[in-house]
C-alpha cells in the first residue's frame, strides 16, 4: 500500500485550498515535471483517450450560463433544434466509431432532463452502447430515479461540470446553484455511473478561482473519473465571451498550469484537454499532454463550435508519438 504522506501519486481527498494554490505558484517547469511524474505512476503517458461529442438537442436552453452559445438568455445567432431521433444519433455514433472514437457523448441544451424525453434518450444510449462504444451523456440536472434509468439504458458516464470555483460561480450563472450541481453528481454516483466533471478556464476568473475549482473537484466524495479542462471558446453575444474579447484571453502557460494541477490533485482521473483546442497551438497541446492531459474530444465539431479535424489530430499524435488509448484501459483506470 502506498503511503499518501510519502507518495504524491496517491489520491487524496483532504486537499486544502491553500495547498492547491501553492501548486499553482510552483515554478512552471517544476510543476510540469511533478505532474508528468504522477501521470506516469498511473498511466502510460503515450496513450490518449478519444471521445466524440454530438449535440442531440441544440439551443433554446433556459439556463443563463454566461459562456454558452445555447442559452436562450443571449443573442448568439444560434439556430435551435429539437431532440434528434435515436436512429440519427446512432448513425452519427457509428461514424464516430469508424473515425476512431472510443466514447460517444450526447449533449442536450437542457436545464434538466424531463421524464417525457427519457424513452428517446434511453433508446439513443442503448443504440450507441450496442455499437460497442462507451456511452456518455450531458443533459442537465437529473433526479436520482432518472440517473438510475439512464444507467439501466447502458449509460457509462455522465458529464456535469462545476465550471468554476464556488466564489466565481455567480458571475457565470445565476439560474442554478453550486449545490444543484453537487446533487446531480451525487445521483450519478449513487446510480453506479462514472462521473465526468470539470470546468472552464479563461472566463475572466482569477488564479484563486481556478485553484478553488480544482479544490472542489479534488474534495468530492469521489474524484471525477473524467476531469475535463475546457478553455473558454469565446462566443460573441455571451457575457463571458464578450468580456474576454475586451480583456484578452488567458495565457497559454496558465492553462497548462491548470492541467498540471488537475493531474496532481486528481492523479487517477482522465484529465481531458477539452474545448478550445481549435485555436490552441500544437506546442501548447504538447505541453498539456506532458502535464498529464490524457483525453481529448475528436472529430471536427464539439457541440456548437469547431474542433480540430481527425486528420489534423492524427498528424499531431504521429508527431508527438501518442496513440489512442484502448477503451478497456480507460475503463480500468476509472
Ligand atoms: N446543458 C448541460 C449542462 O450544462 O450541464 C449539458 C451541455 S453543456 C454545453 C456542457 C458543458 O460544456 C458546460 O458545463 C461547460 O462546461 C461546457 N461549455 C459550454 N460552452 C462552452 C464554451 N463556450 N467554452 C468552453 N466550454 C463550454
Ligand atoms: C465538457 O466539459 N466540454 C464539452 C462536453 N463536456 C460536453 C462541451 C464543450 C462545448 C464547447 C462549446 C460548444 O461547442 O458549444
Ligand atoms: Fe444550458 Fe448547458 Fe449551455 Fe448552461 S451550459 S446554457 S445548461 S446548454
Structure commentary:
Strands 1, 2, 3, 4, 5, 6, 7, 8, 9 and 10 form a ten-stranded parallel β-sheet that branches. The chain is an alpha/beta fold and 334 residues long. Helix 4 (118-130) runs parallel beside helix 5, helix 5 crosses helix 7 and helix 8 (207-218) runs parallel beside helix 10. The longest helix is centred in the N-terminal third of the chain and has 15 residues, at 28-42. 49% of the residues are buried. The protein is built from 13 helices and ten strands. The chain has one domain (16-333): TIM Barrel, CATH 3.20.20.70. Residues 61, 63, 65, 68, 70-71, 109, 111, 140 line the site of iron/sulfur cluster.
Oligomer: single chain
Bound molecules: S-adenosylmethionine, 6-(5-methyl-2-OXO-imidazolidin-4-yl)-hexanoic acid, iron/sulfur cluster
CATH top level? Answer: Alpha Beta
CATH superfamily: Aldolase class I
